[in-house]
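General statements about sequence and structure are easier to judge against a single worked case. When preparing material for the folding task, we compiled for one chain both its residues and its backbone structure tokens. The amino acid sequence and the backbone structure tokens for this protein are reproduced below:
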Amino acid sequence: MSRPLRITRYALAAILLLAITLTLYWVRDDSLHPEASAWVQAVDSPRDSSDGYLYLLGLVAATEPRAAGRARLAEYRQ
């Protein structure tokens, strides 16, 4: 193997290693801002579902969509 080819391989390996290191540094997560954490907790908290959501859940039913959606949601939450 000639010397320039060996140097080229080392250079490519070094560039690849640098690219992987920078990618791993760039992808790491930062902690959430306190306001964003409050938003996440507000969304995750259990609450009553809206009529529109229940209606959409029950659209496949042949009967009253809201009642079917409510039953489907209750079954899902069990």
Remarks:
- The longest helix spans residues 3-27.
- The chain has one domain: 3-29+50-77.
